[in-house]
Design brief:
Two copies of one chain form a homodimer.
Chain A: H1 7-18, E1 22-26, H2 35-38, H3 44-59, E2 65-68, H4 70-74, H5 77-93, E3 97-104, H6 108-121, E4 125-128, H7 138-142, E5 146-152, H8 159-162, H9 172-184, E6 196-200, H10 208-214, E7 220-222, E8 251-255, H11 257-260, H12 270-291
Parallel strand pairs in A: 1-2, 1-8, 2-3, 3-4, 4-5, 5-6, 6-7, 7-8
Helix pairs in contact in A: 3-5, 3-12
């Protein structure tokens, strides 16, 4: 939800307070919901709501942010979007920053509708697809939202487009990164970071140093740690040099399935398992940031 | 909604039956709704529903397809998505093909959720963003939906990314087009057209001949005619050579604002004005196809 303060300052502050840049992805998948819940009801929207509220409550106070995946909710149509609204409201009550993972991207007049929708639904920030150009991004910033535009995504088959080489030697992903950096320069907060960040997959960390050089002032939303095969160590190449606090290192590291579907250990409930997995990954990330001097 | 028949065959048949490739974009904008409706209720969802049903009923029997713009509905949160469901159901009752303009694009596991959502909501086809790669597209085809992936979009600022020149001389848009053609080759129907089409803006028709050469078997969904400044004549360069029926010319030409907000003339209701604007543009497009020999 847009506020007076820059999104980037709020996010940096939240990471400083938590001491870790962990973002927990909320990707509810019907087939993977805990048996303790599926025993209670078969209504898909009720089930999804109960699971998402449990995830939020399990990670509040551990992670500074959550990232609900819009697709998982849209799967149930308008009922599912209702559950998304409910989940976001709970996350905000619990003090979490909410990044809506929707990867929207459309021309300016349409982007304004999407930005209004993201405000209505209560998101602090959204993920965006930059393929259509700057007009697909600007309306979100003008609405006071944070945004993370796709630069280099974590899936293996993204190379075919994002690694294609331009005549000037840059990859398509690097070219997009330079557009993001240029557009984001007009939206820098007090901490030196832009409200326009970038999505840079942990599994593509070999490209990380170049992308960080192109985008020095961007928060990187880093998916791909955990189930997709990226590791905490892959995040090292993405950190912002010369930062003096954890938040100013400029990364928000997302894990979804490895946290929210963490297997229970002896005597644990499913929410205990989520809290334990979040705490464990949060601690790993904290150590990484400390070793980077922040 | 997925059916036994290939989407491309159904679309070609619907265009043949209508004799025109007109698609009417349903982009409800609160500030532009007809006074005759805003006088009746101030409830935003009721207003939007009444408008969208009026649009559908006004163009049924004239255009073969409609394209609801998801952003305009998402703007009202889950209530708006409810209106979208209602609008799509009405369009299907009236025999219209429904292309959901959502421009989704995410990795395979997430794309499967989006595809399931598009089926739940009743769409025949969706628009997709290919920046993340083939895995962002395939799940929709596997679910039996049609798809139109963005190749060259109609907005002026798309050039910065889509016209960037690769080392091999192709533009980024042309490179994406070759990926679309290759992926679509596995999904060709009885009429020789693929269930995977492409979005090619009318305002970029100077690129049209090259894009048609790269994508001979794709339906082109062509936005940008009307309010965005493209003309019917711009569509000529996008037609598929050697076609023997209107549908096989391989274009679906969208107009949104110029049809659904058509000003009323003396004695007309707002729905009359929409029907008249749709009929007029539909006739222009019919003449174009006839002059192309189909």
């Amino acid at each position: 939800m847009p506020q007076d303060q820059h999104f980037a300052d709020r996010l940096a502050g939240a990471i400083d307070d938590a001491g870790t840049p962990l973002c927990v992805g909320i990707d509810p998948t019907p087939e993977r919901l805990p048996a303790a819940l599926t025993a209670l009801t078969t209504d898909p929207a009720e089930l999804m709501a109960a699971f998402c509220i449990g995830v939020v409550d399990s990670v509040a106070g551990i992670a500074p942010a959550v990232k609900p995946q819009s697709a998982c909710f849209e799967r149930l149509g308008s009922m599912g979007v209702g559950v998304l609204e409910h989940t976001i409201a709970r996350a905000r009550q619990r003090g979490l920053i909410v990044v809506l993972d929707a990867k929207r991207g459309d021309i300016g007049s349409t982007a304004r509708h999407y930005a209004a929708g993201a405000c209505v639904i209560g998101a602090d920030a959204v993920t965006l697809n930059p393929y259509m150009g700057r007009s697909a991004i600007e309306p979100f910033l003008e609405a006071g939202l944070g945004a993370f535009a796709l630069a280099r995504t974590s899936n293996p088959d993204s190379d075919e487009i994002q690694s294609a080489r331009l005549a000037n030697g840059a990859s398509v992903g690097e070219h997009v990164a330079s557009v993001i950096a240029d557009l984001g320069a007009g939206h820098i907060g007090a901490r030196g970071l832009s409200d326009l960040g970038a999505v840079v997959g942990a599994t593509k960390s070999s490209d990380g140093a170049r992308l960080r050089a192109i985008m020095p002032d961007q928060f990187f939303l880093v998916p791909g740690v955990g189930a997709q095969g990226g590791t905490v160590d892959d995040v090292r190449a993405l950190l912002r040099p010369g930062a003096s606090t954890p938040g100013e290192l400029g990364v928000l590291v997302n894990a979804s399935r490895s946290v929210i579907y963490a297997p229970t250990e002896q005597g644990e409930t499913w929410t205990d398992a989520i809290s334990r997995a979040a705490r464990s990954l949060g601690d790993e990330l904290r150590s990484l940031l400390q070793s980077a001097g922040a």
